[in-house]
Write a structure and sequence with these properties.
The chain is mainly α. It has one domain: Glycerol uptake facilitator protein (Up-down Bundle), CATH 1.20.1080.10. 67% of the residues lie in helices and 0% in strands.
Length: 242
């Protein structure tokens, strides 16, 4: 796989399992309905494991625009590759969101609450508070990107281009995401990934869902700006500590 295709595939796997576990827990008449936050956070952790394990050897498995930007700020990834990676990440996330809608279509139809349907695709604050919600996304992404930068070196591709996560294995990063979800995710649903939130939010807006309610556009900027700010701050501090 090329790095572009790898980021599409890796992000697709991340999102199809991540959105999938939210659908299984939240939508009516699924076998997992009502199984709770531990199942959701574990499902997202396993989703990260799968995406990183598949995409890692080919692209460094960023599968997150905030990671690509953070690595570039830290000087461990070329800036000219960032737009290509981000495009691939959005393609993968949107394809996954469509697949999750299709496989759960009957359960979406059986679910009456629009906010519950939207939650399968994107995040929303438990208690709306612009500053605190933004800081929650900044902090969660800071923990993710700082950890990535702190315990791994960048890896060189066959053409000697720095592609990112290097020796970082799939298990460590999945455990970090699990920890973020358990400890920090209860306020906003821990997007910590602009493609993870905005891509499926767009799909939600386009799909013919019954009674889907608001798309939450007034909140949508927070899971974009917050993760990017968190990644940049993580990169700056990691540089300062070297």
């Amino acid at each position: 796989m090329t790095p572009f295709v790898s980021e599409i595939v890796g992000t697709f796997l991340l999102m199809v399992l991540g959105c999938g576990v939210v659908a299984n827990v939240s939508l009516q008449k699924t076998y997992g309905n009502g199984s709770g936050w531990i199942v959701i956070t574990a499902g997202w952790a396993f989703a990260v494991f799968t995406g990183v394990a598949v995409a890692g050897p080919h692209s460094g498995a960023h599968i997150n625009p905030a990671v690509s930007i953070g690595l570039a700020v830290a000087g461990e990834f070329p800036w000219n590759e960032v737009p290509t990676y981000i495009l691939a990440q959005f393609i993968g996330a949107m394809l996954a969101a469509f697949c999750i809608w299709l496989v759960n279509k009957d359960h979406f139809d059986a679910t009456k609450d629009g906010d519950t349907k939207r939650a399968v695709f994107c995040t929303a604050p438990a208690i709306p508070n612009t500053f605190i919600n933004l800081f929650s996304e900044v902090l969660g992404t800071f923990v993710l990107v700082f950890s990535v930068l702190y315990f791994t070196d960048a890896m060189l591709s066959p053409d000697n281009a720095i592609i990112g996560l290097g020796s970082l294995g799939a298990l460590p990063v999945s455990l970090i995401v699990w920890g973020i979800g358990l400890s920090l995710g209860g306020t906003t649903g821990y997007a910590i990934n602009p493609a993870r939130d905005l891509g499926p939010r767009i799909v939600h807006a386009l799909l013919p869902l019954k009674n889907k309610g608001s798309n939450g556009w007034t909140y949508a900027w927070i899971p974009i700006v917050g993760p990017i700010l968190g990644a940049v701050v993580a990169a700056w501090i990691a540089i300062a500590l070297k």
